[in-house]
Amino acid sequence: MKIEIFEDAAELGKAAGKRAAEKIKETINNKGEANIILATGTSQFPVLTILTEDASIDWGKVNMFHLDEYIGIPISHKASFRKYLTERFLNQVSALKSFHLINGENEPRAECERLNNLILKVKIDLALVGIGENGHLAFNDPPADYDTTEPYIVVELDEACRKQQWGEGWFESMEAVPKKAISMSIRQIMQSNEIICSVPDERKALAVKNCIEGAVSNLFPASILQHHSNCTILLDKYSASLLKK
User: Fold this and answer.
1) pTM over 0.90, yes/no
2) Phi, psi (5° rounding) for residue 50?
3) 129 contacts: CB under 8 Å, gap ≥ 6
4) Taking burial as the number of CB atoms within 10 A of a residue's CB, which of 84, 131, 154, 163 is the most buried?
């Protein structure tokens, strides 16, 4: 695991986006195609902007998998991650070879099975992820399941996670935030050849400290990234403010 610190979220996002673009192009050159995982949330805004502006990426050779989605909200809802990725990524680039969005309106376990059958056929080259205020990785809230080998799972969202989603303005009230989601599992994320983790903002500082400087624990789910041999965590000076080094 490598740590890089930037002046602000814009610089962080630019660096993450450029790194991701180079990895995708390199993988296409070496393998003929690239399999990627995309995350959502405010931390990914500048990352996806840089990525979608790179005209040299042959998106027709890219297969995209979706990290997580709420259960029970339609794609028209402003908090829908399907809506987010459609508007901020899919509509901004030329047609992908394939993309696999999570449909949170389908029966959850059947949807997991559908996605599992797809992702088990490929090796993920690059995962773009973030860390939540409660230390979660994807929607794997603490105590996260470090043991399941299922690629996609149904998860319960804890209060801290739901409060973050409300606080970021995705929902009108805490009561409106769903209590369940479909998430890519910890083990599936960790199987990615490379992970780029973008974590801006002072409100993430305690989670960053716990996940980077603390022991690996499912109480701080993203701490598992310490065990990945090709993971870069990009911070701004605000999210890094509680680190000792």
Assistant:
1) yes
2) -65, -45
3) 37, 39, 67, 137, 138, 189, 195, 196, 197, 198
4) 131
